Amino acid sequence: MTYNVPKRIKEIRFGLISPNEFRKMSVTRVITADTYDDDGFPIEMGLMDPRMGVIDPGLRCKTCAGRAGECPGHFGHVELIAPVIHVGFAKLIRKMLRATCRECSALLLDSTQKKQYLSQIRTLKKMEQPIEDITNDAFKEARKPKVCMYCGAPQLEIKVEKPSTYIEKGNEHDHKLMPSDIRVRFEKMTDDDIEVMGINPKNTRPEWMILTVLPVPPVTMRPSITLESGQRSEDDLTHKLVDIIRINQRFQENREAGAPQLIIEDLWELLQYHVTTFMDNAVSGVPPARHRSGRPLKTLSQRLKGKEGRFRGSLSGKRVNFSARTVISPDPNLSVGEVGVPLAIAKELTIPVNVTSRNIDHVREFIRRGSEKHPGANYLERADNRKIKITDKNCDELADTLEVGWKVERQLKNGDVVLFNRQPSLHRMSIMAHEVKVMPNKTFRLNPAVCPPYNADFDGDEMNMHVLQTEEARAEAKMLIHVQENILSPRFGGPIIGGIHDHISGMYLLTNGKNRLRKEQIIGLLRSSDIQEIPEPAGEEDGIPYWTNKQVFSYILPEGLDITYTAGICTSCTECKKENCERDAYVVIKNGQLIHGTIDEKGIGAFKGLVLDRIVKDYGQTLAIKFIDSMTRLAIRSIMHYGFSFGIDDEDIPIEANNQILELLKVAEKKVMDIIIAYNEGNLEPLPGRTIDETLELKIMQELGKARDTTGNIAGKYLGIENAAVVMATSGARGSMLNLTQMAGCVGQQAVRGERIRRGYSGRTLSNFKWDDLGAAAHGFVKSSYKSGLSPTEYFFHSIGGREGLVDTAVRTSQSGYLQRRLVNALQDLEVQYDGTVRDTRNMIVQFKYGEDGVNPMKSEHMKPEAVRKIIESVTGREIE
Amino acid sequence: MHLKIPDGRGFKSLRARLLFIQGMNVIMNNSGNFSLLDHQLIPHHMVLSEKEAAQVLKEFSSLQPIEKEQLPKIKSTDPVIMEIGAKVGDIIKIIRKSQTAGEGEFYRLVIE
């Protein structure tokens, strides 16, 4: 047999395979359940017959003469003594039995109906549409007649015992249909009837759903393993086949000996069980076949199905070489473009280097260090393609014999470009190129500023790293997917890499208001930010020079930067005092000097940072990376300089504040009661488009919401803006004022689907409330704060609300994941051409201009058409509308 | 082209019917002549002459020559196509307003 004859596939037909076909493709009939004889050779016509392929190295296949690895394997077959049902078709067999006559096997529809269905099916097929609806309808109709319209035989009801036992309900007693009976019925069916039932008679006969011959898969598909003890261990499929053949033999012996019907039926059922589990070992209603150890066998269906099955596990899912995966942890001293790689990983992963006359000495050093001393080399490929492992023993010798033209696999070292990835890879910034920095310990280290694009945190997240193997790949990675190229997100045209958490708190502490700093202090702050010389002091006090806090931040700004904006801490007062803002929320940067204002999330934060945005767009990505690095370092230094901590006592509020809150909640409850009284008396005026009941709920929710917010304001007033939680919330570093309100003031109304909690007992949520109590407490209003602790009922309501949030996120992620998958599959082949059009693979125009406007969203100004205005403003120096 | 103008007789309440008729009057510019093209949400459509159509195809053939079948399609039963009287095989130019691009040009091939 030759395999390299090119052949063109003309068509593919799907249908059932006939017993004759099984016999034709079979290379041998299998008659004995034994595998190997005492000498260890496979037995002829046994399960390991050498004609079905070879797995032992050195032997040749008796069918195709191929060696192990070359021979694809060949099917054998078992002649089943009695027919058995194929479980995969159990449902269809049931439907067909019920739709056909028990005597003449005619489909129980009159001829006009049949014709109608047939023409419908044929037109649908021509239009390549699914025919299920029509055939299901036909099955439903054909089940109705009680008497056959062709032969007049009365029809009996057919009961099914899962998975493959069919029982005819007789008038006196029930009769079990044996597979052979069913086969006889199916044999009598006409081609036209079959077609109405949705089967193509050209490819398929219904009786083929009942097996008389069982194909034996090739040996290559179920290789046996030789254990260390020399014992052979067979594949699960082989075990199953042994069972089938044994029962088959016993069945034959018993039948020939004329055993009683009862024993024959038992054996038949056993054969059915083994054939069923051979194909699917997880059929409901059938106990799974087990290995001697008690482990369920992995049979045909189990090999294909599920996450680890052939499709999802072996065909769609791939394992790759030159990759590593481990836990990530933060290191603010790394540049955002770097990744800290554990030494153990760096020693394992390699980069191939072609030895040339120019780099031979350099490469020789790697080899001389061997594979144990870090930047060494692991493998060497000679000009004759022989691969040699470099060890401590042979490294010196190999280094001396190294020649031009060889290939060396050198270990990963500082500065190598690798791809870094965190799943789920939802956007292109989920995979970026980083430069390696080899470090001790066992985790990948990354700068916290690159967490937003990966959506990573350090609560146990793991990330993958891939080492690029060719020059082209490295060049492409450096120019297209390096972190530096991805500071701006094409999603919204702003920076996606930038300060988070402590970076923002730190910057806020440093830049808010006006502070004076001594020389030691500013050196302490700036020491990690690549400082060359100290700027001119702002002034002198008592003969000691001082610098301002704003000067310190200005030090890391590029020269000539001009930007004016209102910071995130701005409270949008009715009249803006601009430079004289008492919260210092009006930011003015002139010529690279911060003159007024506080730098917060809106200045340097990821997603929002305006200062960052200007630097990337006006000064370029290289400078932006430098800015982010020095900004994060300065921020970390500042937060350490000023000190920042948060504890449980930071939520403490004075007694008078507590009393105020209690008083306020009492008033709110009173108001709620008033609304309820008005409702009960019928004095409640319904809101437009609402019923009275809805109005009541709305008004109560509104009143209680207001009450919670007011408690928050009271608590906030007493906490003061120095409070660490307040600093984090206002600067945008983490948390919100609402979180604080709930901690110190009052947790507020718990809601399910936007409504107050109503579920529970009839007429009340919990049994300690009165029936039809509409009050705040009975419907999930939590008066307590997290600090003071919740009462048992409050705790219960809070759990209800909390559970809803949990369920929502679970549902949302799975739904959005599927939506994304469909979108990606639909759009993956579209491409922006050099003429600006978007076309698919057939060269059909999808958009005449990318995005219908030709704008690169990455270079747009937060998706607003403001680029032109910005340019005119910067050239003329005037503000325009 | 004359469309039968609905009088809103399907509505249950008088108020809904009045509102509907009011809306219709706005669309019809109170004149009784109703043209789709007057509606503010309908962009400007025009049929290209053969020469213009060839020009458009040439414009998008800079990478490799394209046929008019490679353009996006519009059905001849589309209300606007019926209104401007374009025939199957014609190329239509549509000018839409855009927030980001000012005006954008789009082309459609009329199909059955």
Structure, described:
The complex is a heterodimer of chains A (881) and B (112). With 881 residues, chain A is α+β, with helices and mostly antiparallel strands. Chain A has six domains: 19-83 and 214-304, RNA polymerase II, clamp domain (DNA Excision Repair, Uvrb, Chain A), CATH 4.10.860; 88-206, no CATH class; 323-485, Barwin-like endoglucanases (Beta Barrel); 502-642, Enzyme I, Chain A, domain 2 (Orthogonal Bundle); 648-792, Orthogonal Bundle (Topoisomerase I, Chain A, domain 4), CATH 1.10.132; 831-876, no CATH class. In chain A, strands 9-15-14-17-8-16 form a six-stranded mixed beta sheet. In chain A, strands 10-13-11-12 form a four-stranded antiparallel beta sheet. In chain A, a hairpin with a 2-residue loop joins β27 (751-752) and β28 (755-756). Chain A is globular and about 120 Å long. Chain B folds into two domains: 1-34; 39-111, Alpha-Beta Complex (Eukaryotic RPB6 RNA polymerase subunit), CATH 3.90.940. Chain B has helices at residues 14-27, 50-59, 79-84, and strands at 44-47, 73-75, 91-98, 102-111. Chain B has a four-stranded mixed beta sheet with strand order 1-3-4-2. In chain B, β3 (91-98) and β4 (102-111) form a beta hairpin. The model of chain B has no long low-confidence stretch (mean pLDDT 81). The interface between A and B is medium-sized, with 17 and 17 residues.
Class based on secondary structure composition and strand pairing of chain B: alpha+beta
Total of DSSP H or I helical runs spanning 4+ residues of chain A: 27
Q: Largest interface by residue count? A: A-B, 17 and 17 residues
Number of helices of chain B: 3
Q: What is the CATH third-level topology name of the largest domain in chain A?
A: Barwin-like endoglucanases
User: What is the general shape of chain A?
Assistant: globular
Q: Outline the low-pLDDT stretches of chain A.
A: none
Strand content of chain B: 15-25%
Number of strands of chain B: 4
CATH class division of the largest domain in chain A: Mainly Beta
Query: How many angstroms separate the termini of chain A?
Result: 81 Å
Strand content of chain A: 5-15%
How are the strands of the largest sheet of chain B arranged? Answer: 1-3-4-2
Question: What count of domains describes the coordinates of chain A?
Answer: 6
Structural class of chain A: alpha+beta
Shape of chain B, please? Answer: elongated
CATH architecture of the largest domain in chain A, please? Beta Barrel
Q: Specify the CATH architecture of the largest domain in chain B.
A: Alpha-Beta Complex
